[in-house]
């Protein structure tokens, strides 16, 4: 990861486009997934650092909002119910009544753009290539142009929008999440019966949003056996709807596993903050692990590693099989009967990455 975190004083990527001293309320709109939310935290940190006395709020979808529970760099998390027209109308009225002076659209989708416009903020900022860019009165050029590099990470893409308006961002802040006392206590109680309260353990997350990003359970089983041979406990986590993956992993692995399939997002944050290692597919959970400093090995299939790799504070590696058709949209494989990019990633390369990450993080 390119980083300017050694700078004494971070800089903006452009001049101030309005009088920041008059700004008291800022809205950040970032809809969609867990990973998107986690990767927005550097921008929230940069804003609050720049405007310590201003109110900085974020608009998220309700199902991902718990990821920011206890997060100190935002004043209020406003939640939108996914797919609800009534919720959109209610939120539009609410944010307009809040009288934000500045509203950043870090998403660019139709709903996010319409709500940014509905905020009535005097300064509405988005990229000039957004579909409805005309609804913003400040339109930024591409993040690649602003950073002066061919490829940008999602974190850099979001920071660039702030930096273009005069917010100091060149230190490229890390992602960060808060481990709440309640979640930490709950996780400790779940680990105790498995004898993992004081024993180093690895977290395996075998699930992913699409088949093009989901490594085979049988291969995760071989990884689990390798981790057990390194005298690490193993905790397998999935969402309730993905519990069958955890069950299949237990059946295939010749190693003792603890499975947790009902953790809340704050509990996932607390669990991964305790982990000696995280191993999983490219997912929002992987970004949570990185945000709390867990050494990580992340297996990639269809995704763009330059844009979605862990924005890591701790040692981390990505493992992928480079193919001419990779990266792609990832919803399905257009070239093969099955997504070969993720299927071809060998166990041996993942195990080798684990060894390097564990050694580097000792």
Structure description:
With 362 residues, the protein is α/β, with parallel strands linked by helices. It folds into 2 domains: 20-164, Rossmann fold, CATH 3.40.50; 181-360, Rossmann fold, CATH 3.40.50. The protein is built from 14 helices and 12 strands. The strands form 2 sheets. Strands 3-2-1-4-5-6 form a 6-stranded parallel sheet, sandwiched between helices. Helix 2 packs parallel to helix 6 (154-164), helix 7 (181-191) crosses helix 10 and helix 8 crosses helix 9 (243-252).
Number of strands: 12
Large-scale geometry: globular
The CATH class of the largest domain is identified as Alpha Beta
CATH homologous superfamily grouping of the largest domain:
Glycogen Phosphorylase B
Q: How many DSSP helices?
A: 14
Q: What fold name stands as the CATH topology of the largest domain?
A: Rossmann fold
Task: Give the termini separation.
Answer: 20 Å
Task: Note the main sheet.
Answer: 6 strands, parallel
Average pLDDT, rounded to a whole number, is 95
Strand content: 15-25%
Lateral strand order in the biggest sheet: 3-2-1-4-5-6
Order of helices and strands: EHHEEHEHEEHHHEHEHEHEHEHEHH
What Rg is obtained from the alpha carbons, in whole angstroms? 21 Å
Percentage of residues assigned to helices:
25-40%
Please state the structural category: alpha/beta
Query: Which stretches of 5+ consecutive residues score pLDDT under 50?
Result: 1-6
What's the domain count? Answer: 2
Known CATH architecture of the largest domain: 3-Layer(aba) Sandwich
């Amino acid at each position: 990861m390119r980083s300017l975190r050694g700078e004494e004083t971070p800089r903006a990527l452009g001049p101030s486009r309005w009088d920041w001293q008059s700004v008291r309320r800022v809205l950040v709109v970032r809809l969609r997934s867990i990973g998107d939310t986690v990767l927005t935290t550097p921008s929230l940190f940069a804003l609050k650092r720049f405007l310590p006395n201003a109110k900085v709020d974020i608009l998220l979808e309700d199902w991902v909002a718990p990821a920011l529970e206890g997060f100190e760099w935002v004043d209020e998390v406003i939640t939108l119910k996914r797919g609800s027209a009534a919720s959109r109308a209610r939120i539009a009225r609410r944010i307009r009544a809040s009288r934000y002076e500045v509203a950043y659209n870090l998403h660019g989708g139709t709903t996010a753009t319409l709500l940014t416009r509905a905020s009535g903020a005097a300064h509405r900022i988005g990229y000039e290539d957004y579909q409805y860019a005309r609804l913003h009165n400040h339109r930024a050029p591409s993040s690649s142009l602003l950073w002066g590099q061919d490829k940008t990470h999602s974190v850099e893409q979001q920071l660039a929008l702030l930096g273009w308006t005069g917010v100091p961002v060149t230190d490229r802040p890390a992602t960060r999440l808060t481990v709440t006392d309640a979640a930490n206590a709950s996780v400790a109680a779940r680990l105790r019966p498995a004898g993992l309260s004081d024993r180093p353990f690895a977290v395996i997350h075998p699930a992913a949003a699409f088949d093009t990003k989901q490594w085979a359970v049988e291969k995760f089983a071989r990884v689990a056996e390798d981790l057990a041979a390194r005298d690490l406990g193993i905790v397998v986590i999935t969402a309730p709807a993905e519990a069958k993956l955890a069950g299949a992993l237990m059946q295939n692995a010749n190693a003792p596993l603890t499975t947790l399939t009902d953790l809340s997002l704050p509990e996932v944050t607390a669990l991964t903050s305790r982990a000696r290692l995280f191993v999983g597919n490219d997912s929002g959970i992987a970004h949570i692990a990185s945000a709390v400093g867990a050494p990580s090995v992340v297996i990639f299939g269809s995704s763009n590693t330059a844009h979605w790799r862990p924005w890591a504070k701790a040692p981390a590696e990505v493992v992928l099989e480079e193919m001419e058709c990779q990266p792609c949209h990832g919803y399905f494989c257009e070239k093969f009967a099955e997504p070969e990019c993720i299927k071809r990633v060998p166990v041996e390369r993942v195990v080798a990455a684990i060894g390097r990450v564990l050694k580097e993080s000792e």
